[in-house]
Structures are given as C-alpha cells and as structure tokens.
Amino acid sequence: MNEIEIFSPASVANVSCGFDVLGFCLDSVGDVMRISKTKKPGVTIGRVTGQSLPKDPLQNVASVAGLALVKEVGCDFGFQIDIDKKIKPGSGIGSSAASAAGAVFGINELLGAPFTRNELIRFAMEGEALASGAAHADNLAPVLLGGFTLVRSNASLDVIKLPNPSELVATIIHPRIELKTMHSRAILKPNVPLNKAVEQWGNLGAFVSALYTNDYELLSRSMKDKVIEPYRALLIPKFHETRQAAIDAGALGSGISGSGPSIYALSKGEETAIKVGKAMESHYKNLDLEYQIHVSKVNTEGIKIISHS
Amino acid sequence: MNEIEIFSPASVANVSCGFDVLGFCLDSVGDVMRISKTKKPGVTIGRVTGQSLPKDPLQNVASVAGLALVKEVGCDFGFQIDIDKKIKPGSGIGSSAASAAGAVFGINELLGAPFTRNELIRFAMEGEALASGAAHADNLAPVLLGGFTLVRSNASLDVIKLPNPSELVATIIHPRIELKTMHSRAILKPNVPLNKAVEQWGNLGAFVSALYTNDYELLSRSMKDKVIEPYRALLIPKFHETRQAAIDAGALGSGISGSGPSIYALSKGEETAIKVGKAMESHYKNLDLEYQIHVSKVNTEGIKIISHS
Questions:
Q1: Based on C-alpha coordinates, what's the Rg of chain B?
Q2: Contact, A101 vs A135, CB < 8 A?
Q3: Which residues of B belong to the active site?
Q4: Distance in angstroms (rounded) separating the CA atoms of residues A169 and B151
Q5: pTM score
Q6: For residue B20, which residues of chain A lie inside 8 Å, CB to CB?
Q7: In this complex, do B203 and A152 lie within 8 Å of one another by their Cβ atoms?
Q8: Residue pLDDT, tens place only, A204-224
Q9: A294 near A29, Cβ under 8 Å?
Q10: Helices A95-110 and A61-73, packing angle to 10 deg
Q11: Contact (Cβ atoms closer than 8 angstroms) between residue B106 and residue B6
C-alpha cells in the first residue's frame, strides 16, 4: 500500500459529566486525509484545503503526531499528508484530534499496521500536546476507537471502549468564534469543591452504567456538569439559553462540547435531534454571529478508510 | 405477619474510587434484628445484645429510621425492634446503615410492603443522618438492594444497582479502634485539586465498566483513591503496610472501608481472599491492638428474611 485516503471524524469530549475522560465519535463531520509514501524520510504536509494550517512539519499537529510514530518504528522512507480540513480549529469538536489521529492511523496502515488503534493513541497525543498545551486523550480515543470511550488514566493512557445505545443521535451547534483549548483551560480553577466533585463522579458512574443498560432516562439524569460548565459557559454566547432550548425540545441532555464554543446535545432518535437543532439555533438567529448545525449518529467505528492503492 | 426476623448485613462504602457514591454488600457479617408489632403506636427499642446501643427511640438509628417510615404511612399500632448487634459501631462497615435499613425493611414487611427496597432508602437516611451528621446512602443502598450500588445523587436519592462479577470475594480487617464517621469526615479538605478529581472519576467510570464486563484486571487498575485516602489513612494504624500486604498477596485492590478504620480488599476467588486476610493481619499481630478478620462473598441480595410469623 502506497497511499491511503481516510475519513477522520470530529468528536465530542467531556459529555458534561466526564471532563477530560469521556468522549464520543461523530459520523457526519470530519476531515478527509490522504497519506502517501515518499522517498524522502520524515513527514511533510502537502496540500491543505478547507482551512489554513501550518505547513511546517514541526508546527502541524498531523505531522508532529506522525513523526512520533515514524521515530519509534524507524523507516527509510517518508510520508506526505494532504488534508481537506472540514473541522474548524478551535470549534470544540476535536479538530486537532482528527488531524493527529488521522495521521498516525494512515501512516500505521501504510506500514502494515504494526500498532492497534488503541496503541496509536500515544503517538497522536504528541499532536494534541502541540495543539492544546496539555495532552489529553478524550478526543483521540473516540476518533481512533469509535463510539463512546473512557480514558481511565491520561498518564498511563488506559482507554476503554464503552457500549453505544443505538438510538442516540447528537446535535452540535458551532457558533463561529474560535476558542483555543489552552484559553478555555486557563479559565478553570485548580481546585474544585469536594461536594461538586462527588456529584460529578456519581453522574459519570451512572452515565457509564446507562450506556451498558440502554437506560436513556438515566443517561439524561446523568448529563450534568457543575464543575467545569459554570466557568466555560462564560466564554460562549447564549450558552444557557441554547442548552435549555435543546432540553425543552426533547434532548436527553446538552452541554459544552469539549472546551467549546460548540454546544452538543444528545437525543433519542434522529427526528428529535433535528428538532433540537432547530431549537438550539433559535437563539443564534437574531445575533450577528455565524453558526453551523450538525446532526450526527454516533460513529461506532471511528476513522474510516475511503480508499487505498 | 406480626413479627419478622432478618439478617441485616454489613457493607463497604466508597470502594476507593467512589467516595460517597459506591458501595457493596457483605454476606458473612451482619446484625440479626427482630421487629414485632406492638399495640402502642410508635417505634421502641427492645432487647439489645452484642453491643450497647441507646434505648431512647430518638437516639437510636434503627428507631429513628423506623419512625420516619411510620410517620409517612401513619398507623394505629407500633413496632418493637430487638437487635443482636454484631457489627461494631464505628468500625467502617456500615453499622448504622445495617440498623437503619434493617428497621425500615422489617417495618415495611410487617405493613405488607407498601414500599420497594429502593424507596426505603429515604427513610433509612434519617437514621444515617443521626449517626454520621450528614446523610449518605452509600452504605444503605447496598444493604437494601444487595451487590454493588451507585448513588448517582445523594440529594435526589437516585440509586442504581450495578452487576456483580461472581468471583469477587472481600476481605476486611477491623482494627479495634472506633472512628466516628463525623470525625473521619472532619479531616477531609473542602476542596480537591481538579487533576486528582479527574483521576478519581476516570477510575470510577472504569470501575463501573469493569463490573459490567467482568474485567478483573480493569477493576484492579481502577481501585485507586488519591482524594480521600491520603487524609483518612492518617487515622488508621499501619494502613499503608496493610494495604500493600493485601496487594502483594494477590488482592485486586485494597483501601479504606467506608470512613475506616476497617480496611477492605477485593480478590478473585475465596482462596486468594483468605490468603489476603493472612497477609493483612501480619502487620497487626505484633501490635498491642485487637483486630478481626472477615472474608465474605458479595451479598447480591442484601437484607435477608430469616423467619416471620
């Protein structure tokens, strides 16, 4: 195999109750990446469309992640990465994770897949570290493994794939302001009240249980965040109104997607998810602020191969 | 039915990663309670053996919990509670929870069971509040529902029963010092570092997942506590040595049972659990401190009816 074209999906991290540990993979939004073998060793960035991204291999998350993998295996040829970047950087739906995970996935395939998808996470982390200042696997894990994932430990990269109740459909509204993860991380307090932390882990435990038992009502009751959301909500215009509109329109829950500014909702069934999208945009329509709506099933597979040769 | 005799079991709360939310029920340790109808309305404490407990109905957790139930249903007769108290108060294996849960369970049965076991938790909470100063359902839930339980919310008493990997066996060592829950609660800090809280909820999410998938290795990796244990360990003689001895002897994990001083371990299989018990007592044998060892399967049923008439 000399060339591979892949779909590297967007993802939603945190999912209200699981800051830095929980995430799920989207299906209708993602980048298209082509990775090709080159004679010259190393990893280079080729054609970039859709968004403007750094061409310097040491400044681009895709090549930085790819280089981490190449450095470990050692090989006498190289790779070029072409990116059709459809996920906007700073949108809160895992733009850098899609680039980093896509790069290592593609290169791994061209090398004959020496690593499992789970093992690839640690290479992709180097790209994430460049993008966000602190490396977290909560977007990378769902992009590589698909479905819902839990990062038990970011330090040891102990990542678990969770089950996916089949009727869940996500709605995302992306207001066109850019929030750098490092800025939305800086607004957080270094300490949290113990009683709020207890609420949070009670909710996360219940959320995980609900995924196993297809208990949509329990999922709904668990999608709460009193630890992170109160601070990050300050950075997102009309957050509370939009979240409430989603709930009122029938969403099981809604909150900040990753570090924002995108707001996600999860609903039972596509019909409700579409209705929820309409409700969520109602507060943006009258603002002089562009936005985009995505409705997507949970992508249980993660990165998909489009073609190879 | 005029009289009922029940076994009201001990329980382990927190289970390292689930402070105030997680718990499981023991099978080989528990109180025997007899609840009988009386002509005189109200709830009285009759014969108490095993331990010395308050006879004043307003000072005894069993009668306080029972009164909460009786007050709600209203009835023109009353109840007497006889207790053979085998769980030592202040031992950290849910002594007050067994009393409170046993009382409401027995009275509910004598009333024709108007409430489910889950619904009884809120009445038993009134007994727990008397015992610990702050009411938590993390011991009551496993005593009433059996197996492993998760309290999603202490405020709304949203309690979930979790599955129970069949080979899990608990070992408990109870050093004979008494720790009041309110004292071991007072030693905790009101705030926790966000990064420690994230580790904790990553572990709890993984623990819940592992219960569903019978993943003993993942259970083992998840039984960590960097939030509460560092403080409460100070109150327990030889805690770190005992915990380490349990792990070295093959336990999946070990930590403080509830608010201590008991230390619990979970092992795969009874043989290992017995070996773990021997290892745990090695550090107590040379101290001038009494202790007790319990080895117990997880009790999946909770409170059991011994006889009724």
A1: 19
A2: no
A3: 128, 181
A4: 27
A5: 0.96
A6: 198, 202
A7: yes
A8: 999 999 999 999 999 999 999
A9: yes
A10: 30
A11: yes
